[in-house]
Amino acid sequence: MSSTSTGPGGKGSLQEIKAESSLTARVRESIRQAIIDGSLEPGSLHSVQSLADIFKVSRTPVREALIDLAGADMVEFERNRGVRILETSVHDLEQILVLRILLEVPATHRATGRIDADGLIALRQELDAMVEAAEADDELTMMQHDRRFHELINTASGNSRLTEYVDSLRDLILTRGVSTVHSTRSLPEIAAEHEGILAGIASGDADAAASAMKLHLVNTTSLLLQQEGGRSTSLSFGWEDLVTGS
């Protein structure tokens, strides 16, 4: 168990962690979550020792966790200074979002022919939970079910590495604190975009499922880029034309 310890800026996501076999993994998850929710602000610089003091652990698990997060492009080590929390540029944001399109659309096409009855039930449960949370205007809960919905599809494609990688891409997007919720579309509108995806998968129509996934991701990408960088709604390099479901 962990007890809350106020981190930089007085926020509470940084937590003291007790020694366990999974210590490094738990430190990594705590730092990752603190980056995502802004407790560790983009551009801020921290020493390994200062973070170890917050978590009440030795430097070793903190350093190992930070090395892992550096590989995920969430932090960067600076020689003789410490570790800096990275802030992704609009161009990097586009690249991250495009990767999701290139990976998740074909994965949806493949998952349609592989998912079993239990998988379909799980997808319906996640989507129903999304709709319920959307109607209650509960963004946090809805996005948790949104994430799980996509994870189930990616896992059904048969590529566990893809599932893990897409999950890390979502973390990078969240690190920027960007969202199309409320400013450009409502929670029910986002949930509704997933109905077509599930309908295609449930009917065994891989092309329809992939097209619906592509529409959802391209729409999200275009809105985010327009919101963050003032761009037009078309992607810079036309990547959306290269994936299944065009």
Task: Describe the secondary-structure layout.
Blueprint: E1 2-4, E2 15-17, H1 23-37, E3 45-46, H2 48-55, H3 59-71, E4 75-78, E5 82-85, H4 90-112, H5 117-135, H6 139-156, H7 160-175, H8 187-203, H9 206-229
Antiparallel strand pairs: 1-2, 3-5, 4-5
Helix pairs in contact: 1-3, 1-7, 2-3, 4-6, 4-7, 4-8, 4-9, 5-6, 5-8, 6-7, 8-9
Provide a count of the helices.
9
Pick out the low-confidence regions.
1-11
CATH H-level name of the largest domain... which superfamily? GntR ligand-binding domain-like
Strand content: 5-15%
How many runs of DSSP E, i.e. beta strands? 5
N-to-C series of helices and strands = EEHEHHEEHHHHHH
Helix coverage percent: 55-70%
Query: Taking strands numbered 1, 2, ... along the chain, how are they ordered across the largest sheet?
Result: 3-5-4
Assign the structural class, choosing from mainly alpha, mainly beta, alpha/beta, alpha+beta, or little secondary structure: mainly alpha
Gross morphology is elongated
The fold-level CATH name of the largest domain is Four Helix Bundle (Hemerythrin (Met), subunit A)
Biggest β-sheet, characterized? 3 strands, antiparallel
Q: State mean pLDDT (0 to 100 scale).
A: 83
How many domain modules? 2
Say what oligomer this is: single chain
- CATH architectural name of the largest domain: Up-down Bundle
How far the N terminus sits from the C terminus, by CA atoms, comes to 48 Å
- Broad CATH class of the largest domain: Mainly Alpha
Rg measurement, Å: 19 Å
